[in-house]
Write a structure and sequence with these properties.
InterPro entries: SF0329-like. It contains ten helices and three strands, in the order αβββααααααααα. It has 189 residues and is mainly alpha-helical. A three-stranded antiparallel β-sheet has the order 1-2-3.
């Protein structure tokens, strides 16, 4: 599919509240061996999400320690998870340490997921991910581990006010780029 046709389809699904704010852009190089170019999203004509550029305002993580120590990522801990650790350690660990152990294990696995998603995003071809977005249900795009699919779904007009407001807890565990576009959308609903 040509970029102009793809851009037109993406813009047709853009939330009306974001119509003048968010724009899809792409560059391609005619004589490039792979001819893939790059795609990016702009907000108020500022380049916000460029998959290949580390100077964008979105924070890109370098190590899992950065993710673990980021205060913006909140990792919820349930009583069932604490109880599972208690059983695993056969009660040898003090009560106040159980929650720390659960949070540490969850943050490690979460960090690995975020780094993998970030690596896939930086290598992805914007047009192929956008085509996948258009062919997949909005629910699958929201639940996906792909950062770009999450962002495209969040700014989609098919995601209503009630769903946006109900997603606040699950968004806290997503990449900072997804959190940025969630906040942008939440302000407009």
């Amino acid at each position: 599919m040509s970029w102009s046709k793809l851009k037109q389809q993406l813009e047709s699904f853009l939330s009306p509240a974001l119509a003048g704010t968010v724009a899809y852009r792409a560059t391609s190089y005619r004589y490039s061996p792979d001819k893939s170019g790059s795609g990016y999203l702009t907000v108020d004509q500022k380049n916000i999400l460029n998959m290949a550029d580390t100077t964008t305002p979105i924070r890109w993580y370098q190590t899992d320690q950065e993710i673990k120590n980021d205060p913006n990522i909140v990792i919820p801990v349930s009583m069932e998870e604490i109880e599972a650790i208690r059983k695993e350690t056969k009660g040898a660990v003090p009560e106040e340490r159980l929650e720390i152990m659960v949070r540490g294990r969850k943050s490690t696995s979460h960090a690995k997921e975020l780094l993998a998603a970030q690596a896939a995003l930086s290598k992805s071809n914007f047009t192929s991910v956008a085509t996948t977005f258009l062919a997949t249900s909005i629910e699958d795009n929201l639940e996906s581990n792909d950062i770009l699919l999450n962002i495209l779904a969040l700014i989609d007009r098919r995601v209503g006010k009630k769903r946006i407001l109900n997603m606040s807890d699950s968004i806290k565990m997503k990449h900072s780029a997804v959190q940025y576009f969630y906040e942008l959308r939440r302000r407009t609903v």
